[in-house]
Amino acid sequence: MNEMPVMHESEGIVLFHPHVPARAIEEVTQVLHSRWIGQGPRVAQFETEFTQRFAGPGASIAVGSGTDALHLAYILAGLKSGDEVIVPVFTCTATNIPFLYMGVTVRFADVDPETLNINVNHVRELINEKTKAIVCVHYGGLPCDMDELQAIAKEYNVPIIEDAAHAPGATYKGKKVGEISEFTMFSFQAIKHITTGDGGMLTIQDKNLIPKAERIRWFGIDRSNKQKGTWENDITEVGYKYQMTDISAAMGLASLHEFDEILSHRQGLFEAYKTGLKGATGITLIGDHAPDRTHAAWLCTALVQKDRPGFMRMLRDKKIESSQVHYRNDRYSIFGGRRDDLPNMDAVEENYIVLPLHTKMTVENVKYICDVIKKGW
Ligand SMILES: *Cc1c(COP(=O)(O)O)cnc(C)c1O
Question: Residue 198 CA: which ligand 1 atom is closest?
């Protein structure tokens, strides 16, 4: 992995920082000198290597963003206008916005107070004959209760779509996130573990869906037929312009090749927060104990017992950035207004806060942040 530069003094400790390997610059330069800069051999190679690393016996489809990958998954899951889906209320809007493109009704499930992941008991209360899929997000990088979700999904015969934007490299009971459910989405947006500027990957366990996924990614056209240069290209289903470029894939491959270092660096920082905040009063970490799963350490989220604005101000005075990052989705008007059946979300809404975690940081930086926090606010 490339050298970890010390944070610039004047900037302080920022919340996020993109991770761009030195090799990515070389690889992108090579692509720019080649004949293929759009979707070409690098995209295929990225998909193959991504599958080897994350998708078990499944396959991977590279697209232009994580949101594209989710929309694609929702289409492949057969969802259509008028259907209902159960979704997490606490996530990036990217998880739920594609349902609005499709006219699918979202039913928001509450959070688990310990992890801020989807609350399995609430999923069980919400599910009914109209439910056509369950979506979960592994918040911060800690996998959801997949056995329990799968039991419910099986009973109602609906697919699970995992939003693993925070969770590449996470495992659940020895299984890799990416090989557990029928569909798993990964994001390569600027501040994710692996970045391609913007980009996404959908891992799919049923390989029979791959040809359709490839068509939907490209207007609905069968690309290999089109490349013959003759008319064999009627479009019979509406597709999108969702493909990844070789420029992006070159970046993605470079990060994939140093993924072990990226992941362990992030996990080391998360551990340092755990150690550093042990015994601290008024603050608890989210998702810091789950022996049957590993945390991919994308976010370090804490609950502060009092005065979050004061806590953030105190950190800002010490040049430490903090943020809420995601907001409960029912706060956004497009989703139809605030729900009143989400008591756990209500309880943490004014208390959660995300602390800096990225590969430009050192364990020393985390110790410093923890010492500042322990002085109180
Ligand atoms: C980043 C992210 C996405 C995908 O976002 P894109 O910017 O479209 O790649 C989806 N869900 C969550 C939870 C995310 O954090």
Answer: 9
